[in-house]
Amino acid sequence: MSEAMAARRTVSVTVNGVAHERVIDARLTLVDFLRGELGMTGTHVGCEHGLCGACTVLLDGQAVRSCILLAVQADGAAITTVEGLATGGQLHPIQEAFMEAHGLQCGFCTPGFLMAVTELLEGTPDPTEDEIRDVLGGNLCRCTGYEAILASVKLAAAKLRALRGTVAGDG
Ligand code: FES
Ligand code: FES
Fold first, then answer.
1. By Cβ atoms counted within 10 A, which residue in 15, 18, 28, 113 is the most buried?
2. Ligand 1, from 33, 47, 113: best to mutate by most atoms within 8 Å of Cβ?
3. Is residue 117 part of a domain?
4. Ligand nearest to the CA of 54
5. Residue 153 sits in a domain of what CATH number?
6. How many helices (H) and strands (E) does the chain have?
7. How far is CA 108 from the centre of its chain?
8. Are 35 and 69 contained in the same domain?
9. Residues 48 and 103 reside in one and the same domain
């Protein structure tokens, strides 16, 4: 087998519920795979060093930085990107909250924040301010000063709790 052939790998992943399989360069990062191979450009690339959080996606439900993972490391996994949050043309409650509480300005950092907050609120529906700040501390925003993002997360948590209460009440 030639070196070029040896450097290619088949990767199978499910992204936002849709299965994809590609033969790729084994050195391709997950974020470049999502953006370049699958055309999902909602996940942004900032620092490319695992520092800014712009590239955050969920890998089997866990928030990860897709710039420091190889796509081959995600083989067999279920990935959720920012494109997977809205359903049927309806924004996800976390997206609604960021819009209503002005949690974004230029929006470059927003996909990463949304995915990190999705993980937080899945596991911790009623987080304390310290717990929210702890998660937000992992993502960089050059525009907002973070206070509006903090308010957005509190609003998102309240929206999701209300929604879950409604659904539970319906049963
Ligand atoms: S682009 Fe991945 S952490 Fe900054
Ligand atoms: S809204 Fe511009 S970097 Fe966060």
1. 113
2. 47
3. yes
4. 1
5. 1.10.150.120
6. 6, 5
7. 13
8. yes
9. no
Q: Give the DSSP per-residue string, 114-149.
A: HHHHHHHHHH-SS--HHHHHHHHTTS--SSS-SHHH
Beta carbons within 10 angstroms of residue 123's beta carbon: 10
Report if residue 50 sits inside a domain. yes
Is the minimum distance from the CB of 108 to ligand 1 under 6 angstroms?
Answer: no
Nearest residue (by CA) to ligand 1, atom 3, is: 50
Write the CB contacts of 21 (distance below 8 Å, at least 6 apart in sequence).
10, 11, 12
Give how many domains the chain has, as a whole number: 2
Kindly give, in sequence order, each residue whose CB lies less than 8 Å from that of residue 141, ignoring residues fewer than 6 positions away: 109, 113, 149
The alpha carbon of 126 and the centre of ligand 1 are apart by a number of angstroms equal to 27
31 shares its domain with 74: yes
This model's pTM is above 0.85: yes
Q: Is the CB of 54 under 6 A from ligand 1?
A: yes
Look-up of token digits 């999701």: 160
Q: 160 is in which domain, residue-wise?
A: 93-166
Tens digit of pLDDT for each residue in 128-159? 999 999 999 999 999 999 999 999 999 999 99
Q: Quick: pLDDT tens for 15-64.
A: 999 999 999 999 999 999 999 999 999 999 999 999 999 999 999 999 99
